[in-house]
Specification:
Length: about 170
C-alpha cells in the first residue's frame, strides 16, 4: 500500500504563518504585544512587593482600627472615625487609576511614598519601572509608620481599655 504525500510543516513554516497571521489581524498583533510585555515584567520584584505591601498595609490599618476601637465606647462613636481612615484608601485607588496613564507624575510619586497610600499606588507603579531607591524608601517609611501606629494604638489601648473611667485625650 503506497502512502500519499503528507502535509507536514516545519517549525520555520509554522512561525512564518504565525507572523503573517499577526500582521493580518491588528487585534492579534496587539495581543501579542501585550503578552510579550507581560512576560518581560520583573515578576520577582512584583511578587515580593505585593507580599510586603499587603502585610504591612494590613498591619498599618489594623493598628489604626485597633486604636479607634479602644478609644470609643459604642458603635455610633466608631462610625465618626471611619471616614478619616477610609479617605486615604479612596485617594490611593483614584491615584492608582491615574498612575496607569502617567506613572512618573508628582502625585503618583508622592502617594507612592506616603505610607497610608503607598500599598496601592506603589503596586500600580512598579510594572512601569520604579527606581529601587523609591521602592526601598517607601518600604522603610511603611515600616516606621507601622511601628509608630502600633505604639500609638498601644498607648490608646492602655488608656481607653485598661484604665477604667478615664477618657482618652490628646
Amino acid at each position: 500500500v503506497a502512502a500519499g504525500p503528507q502535509n507536514v510543516m516545519s517549525a520555520d513554516q509554522q512561525t512564518q504563518e504565525a507572523v503573517q497571521a499577526a500582521t493580518a489581524s491588528p487585534q492579534l498583533a496587539e495581543f501579542t504585544k501585550l503578552f510579550d510585555s507581560a512576560l518581560n515584567q520583573p515578576w520577582g520584584l512584583i511578587i515580593f512587593s505585593f507580599i510586603f505591601y499587603f502585610i504591612t498595609g494590613y498591619l498599618l490599618y489594623a493598628s489604626v482600627f485597633a486604636a479607634i476601637g479602644s478609644a470609643v465606647d459604642n458603635e455610633t462613636e466608631t462610625q465618626q472615625f471611619m471616614l478619616p481612615v477610609t479617605i486615604p484608601i479612596i485617594i490611593a485607588l483614584m491615584v492608582a487609576m491615574g498612575t496607569m496613564q502617567n506613572p512618573e507624575s508628582p502625585v503618583a510619586f508622592w502617594c507612592s511614598l506616603i505610607p497610608l497610600t503607598s500599598p496601592i499606588v506603589m503596586m500600580a507603579r512598579i510594572p512601569f519601572g520604579v527606581p529601587y531607591w523609591q521602592i526601598f524608601l517607601s518600604m522603610f517609611l511603611m515600616l516606621i509608620t507601622f511601628w509608630a501606629f502600633v505604639w500609638m494604638a498601644a498607648k490608646i489601648y492602655r488608656t481607653g481599655i485598661l484604665m477604667y473611667g478615664k477618657k482618652t485625650s490628646w
